[in-house]
Request: fold
Amino acid sequence: MSEQRFPDAPADPQEAEREVRPPLAGPVTDVVVALAVVGLGVAALVGSLALGAGSPRTPGTGTWPLLVSIALVGLGLGLLALSGRTRDAERFTRASLHVLAGLATMIGFVAVVRVIGFEIPATLLMLVWLRFLGREPWRTSIVTSLAAVVVLYVVFVGLLAIPIPHMF
Reply:
């Protein structure tokens, strides 16, 4: 079976990748990102200890956040050790604003979920992410958002009886 090519596509796949990728980040960006990951990990570590980590025999509320924060600190230190040696980090561009928009909507979700439950914020979060950040069609975004929230509700509230804020 022969490989189908588009008329304007470059013959070399690496050339095509170079055309689409943003410019590479420098070592300063590597260090800043690594320090940000370490800082986030340390902040999460302090927060998890405030929740109460418990012990291996009787884990507390902060056990999983503690483990995740330790992993974040370790990964951040690993990034710091590799800074300047990798060639896959990309410079921040206009497309990076999608990440900030995703973070802002997640912060909004966390801010309102305790007040009105998770159903409406989760549906809106998924809708925004799918439609505006992922550029999915309206129908796909709406159906997927609603279906995902129904599945989350059934699994976490109905089957597992997890005490999350919910409306129904």
User: Anything to note?
Assistant: DSSP finds six helices and no strands in the chain. The helical segments are 13-20, 27-51, 63-82, 97-116, 119-133, 138-159.
